[in-house]
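[agent] plan:
  1. take the single chain provided in the ticket
  2. run structure prediction with default settings
  3. attach structure tokens to the ticket
  4. add a short note for the reviewer (M.T.)
[agent] executing step 1
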Amino acid sequence: MKKILVLLVIAVIFSCSKDEDLILTKTIDPDGSADVEVQDFMWKAMNFWYFWQANVDDLSDVRFVNTAEGRAEYTSFLDSEDNPAAFFENKLQYIEDRFSFYNKDYRELTNSLAGISKSNGLEFGLVRFQDSEELFGVVRYIIPNSNAATANILRGDLFTGVDGQTLTLSNYEELLFTGSDTYTLNMADFVNGTIVPNEEEVSLTKAQALAENPVLISKSFEIGGENIGYIMYNQFTNEYDDDLYAAIEALKSAGITNLVMDLRYNPGGSVNTTRLLASMIYGTNTSDVFLRKRYNDKLQNQFNDSQLEVYFADKVNGKTINSLGFSKLYVLTSSSSASASELLINSLEPYIDVIQIGDVTRGKNEFSTTLVDDRDNSYLYTPSRVNKINPNNQWAIQPLIGRNENADGFFDFTSGLQPDIILKEDYGNLGILGEQNEPLLARAIEAITGQTGKRDFTVLNPMEVFISSKIGNPINDKMIDDTVYDLEF
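[agent] step 2 finished; step 3 output follows
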């Protein structure tokens, strides 16, 4: 049988000859005089790739027949929404799909998936005041070398307004995400259990192409006879695989005996980066199944079982992985830990003891890929083929195209992964990230060393985040299929 290398970089790229391409089942085209080029691309791409294709009547293979009457009906359907965004949401998206999205410019989307976005570097969570429409913001961390890094603002700081307007459920999006790139935060203090606005203001400006290295902190310390490694990792971004590799290598050289992976603010990202990190932690046996893919039935039937399996890795960009070989991993989570973060936990569970500390995760197990108007490439975005994308249509869609199962076949955690040790963040006592007395890390250290001491981990002010600053990043809550493996047809 002919072996074909399948390289998935942001999207799944099937490198095979024309007659061996994935079989696109629909060839019906709309009336050429209609202005529905974008909607036509969206329907055809979703008809083939969408995980819930069988659940959306309008995406059925028999919805439109390839006759003059059928083409007229198809054209009318595509023209039913002038705005492609509304067409995607109202006509194509399954009602239970929380995570598929789109962008009118594929370049903006792919840059964001690579960790490059317009940002001021302030990462925060918004919390709703009890029995109120009003919100307050809690600073989680600051991205180094950003505008916020030059401002007088730190982790744990609070704000209740923007540009003099009190934050509410109805205005937060405009004030913080879709409005001006420059805004002024109206700060607040936490006094005797109450959040009280003060007179301080912090002005911030978003910058284009701010690149965030997701390895925010990497360090080790010896406590109670244990050498504990700690990594705060905030996004599974494949452009920074070498940095992640270097961080693990440094900790291995330091002789760590335990590892704490802090994923509490990690919204997901690259499947392949997740696989590489799992291999660095557990092992490099390329016969061990990291995950099994499940597509819609139409696509699933084009592969055999072995073609749907992804295995642990032994190299990172050509460099040999010197695995830690640990049988236990400590992971810090919150309600913002999603998709690829959950994949790391779930895919390691069959092999090692994963001790989850913190809050219940987001509950996102489907993966997505970037689709563009390049029919000859099965609508898959491939960087080397950007000149093949329809020049009249720059839209991209990022639909959920499948789900991942671990080696034991488990995948059902849409309600989130439950922690072994529950400990929510306390906005009145956040602590300093990476310091031994930061509450979540301190609890992990206690679990590792067995030294309980007299520390009280009671949470007086649980941080129930309504929405976070990462909502502005398209990688938020996304699991991007970019694994590298071989298929045989």
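[agent] step 4 note for reviewer: The first strand starts at residue 3 and ends at 9.
[agent] ticket updated
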